[in-house]
Amino acid sequence: MVDYSPPSQPPPLLTGEQVGRLIEQGHLELALPSHLQNCISALASSGTTFFKQSRRTKAALYPSSHGTESGYYNVDGEKEFLTLRCAPSNPPSDLERQAKIVWSLAATYLYRILCDVSAALDISNDVWSPLLDGCRSMPEGSNLDTTIPTVLRIFHYEPDQGTAAPHTDIGLLTLCTGDGPSLQVWNRGGGSEGEWVDVATPTLLVGDTLRLLSSTRCVSGLHRVVGNPWGRESIVFALRPSLRHEIDLGLLGGSGSVGSAELYTTIRDRKSNVNARRDGSASVKGSDRVEL
Ligand SMILES: O=C(O)CCC(=O)C(=O)O
Ligand SMILES: [Fe+2]
């Protein structure tokens, strides 16, 4: 008899070679599906228009809250960025409408990649559903939901001075897209220590939470932004774990469970914030690199 039951997992999105590189290096350059790429480009152009406004207007439109975790934030002479965590005003602006679309498309895309990673590591795909609860579309309402730390960020870096110190991200997977040869990833070299390399195309980065959930079989993607004479604009979607559920460690080859909020808070509090001002107006803790 023909078996019409649905497959136990989605078809792979990345090639085996790409997944292997992502796991071993913590980063992967890749071409995005054209619809996702087009929506990101449309959001990028609304971002350019947004940043042309006065600082006062930008701050009034998106007051910052939770340190650098929501709203408009400026690091004098270096960079400014807008962090979106929920679908705000009604009716939405073009930028907000586009951000909502990019969030859903990028989250679905990264979910598929998480499934490729778990298949390669022989981990059940069931681990992802509770970890992505509430993250797969932009949370509704103007009140920030602290159980959903996922962020969509639009950056504007000043020429020469706009940088981000070497760091790894705290979440599951980050998708970075941007213009200009400013984003660099650390290429771990076989034998030798490794080297910084420029990445020009969209880049995926493994975050510390994924590294930990994989029992350190995935490495976190070390990256930085270096200054260039033209500056840079980028869009960064950082898929972080939902903090609503316990994580069943049995699905990860261990036993028992751990609270996702507890795990995530431990990872976060051991890091410094590379996007904060250094004057104490947002918390700066720990060292630039995290080793868990
Ligand atoms: O601008 C970028 O492409 C990267 C920014 C970044 O690394 C971060 O916000 O964590
Ligand atoms: Fe980063």
Task: Provide a brief overview of the structure.
By secondary structure, the protein is an alpha+beta fold. Helices cover 28% and strands 21% of the residues. The structure holds 2-oxoglutaric acid (AKG) and fe (ii) ion.
By CATH, the topology is Jelly Rolls
Residues in β-strands, percent: 15-25%
What small molecules does this complex bind?
2-oxoglutaric acid, fe (ii) ion
Order of helices and strands: HEHHEEHHEEEEEEHEEEEH
Structural domain tally: 1
Outline the low-pLDDT stretches: 280-292
How is the biggest beta sheet arranged? 7 strands, antiparallel
Radius of gyration: 19 Å
CATH architecture: Sandwich
Shape: globular
**Number of DSSP strand runs:** 13
Oligomeric state of the chains? single chain
Structural class: alpha+beta
**DSSP helical segment count:** 7
* Global mean pLDDT: 90
How do the strands line up in the largest sheet?
A: 1-9-6-11-4-3-2
Distance between the termini: 50 Å
